[in-house]
Amino acid sequence: MAMTSRITFFLLLVVCSGCLPVEEDSWQHYQSGGHYPARTPAMAPDGSVIVFSSPRTGNGDIYQINRDGTQLVRLTDSSAFETDPIFSSDGSIIAFAREADGRRHIWLMDRDGSKQRQLTSGRVLDDPWAFSPDGSELILQRSPLSMGMGRSVTSYAANPRSKQIRTLEASPVYSPDGARVAYGQYNEPNKIFEIWIADADGSNKRLLVSGHSPRFSPDGNTILYSTENSDPGSLWKMIDIDGSNSRELGRVEGPVFAPDGKHVLCLSPEWQREIWKLEFDGSNRKRLQAPTGYIDFFRPCRDGFIIKLVTDDRVGDIYVVDTDEWNVERVASMR
To answer: Which among 186, 161, 159, 160 is positioned nearest to 171, based on CA atoms?
Structure first.
């Protein structure tokens, strides 16, 4: 994918660890009373196990647990803070962030925790984002070490084998079959965000629509995107990849296509977020029965969604939404 011209954007919230005081790293932030800085757990592509970061040992380690909540296994045991594990597309490799001495780098390990090896280095803060569908590249978000509340974040692609890293024009979202990518980009002259679509190798690049935060439908034929940032919730729309059939989903928070290809799952914009299921056209909204707490994020997984719900323990519990019955089931505590 020939995306090589660099673009950076300024975030008031760092991708993984949040806006931490200058004198604190992620583990110190948690020890001093902050929330545990870990994203949503990840489920293996085959749906058998879940990996997550937990403060129960060391300074934060990566654990693995079966989908049914049995057989908890510790995968890392270094003195560093380790977080944000994700699986490769075939489930054989786990990428995660290891933070020590104020720097955060990406490491790789085999699914059973063996063969741990460092992928990135330098005076940077790196966060693993997603593997390409063929597993040949890992998309990461990188921030230079900085002072103050904001950090400049740039998207990169790293080759897990050669360790070569290249700068991306923007952070791509892959279609389920890996044939295409979509990404948001800021048009500086016109002061608008735009969504572009291209073949996976960067060819046939074209402007699709004004907006940002694109995501593909399970069949790869539709893009869900945000048209604005506002409160409460953003206005989300859908459009086919050929630019036709534009329709409005509604004003919601963080919608994601369900694996069944028929529904969208989204959050209400309040602090104690509710989970809602709705049709592609925004109709038939139904609130799912879920425990009270802050739903940090949710991501699609095999046959449903995986959720991290944070309560008073500042760490969180792992829940899975089954899209057959639309039940919300607790798997385990991350603490």
So the answer is: 186
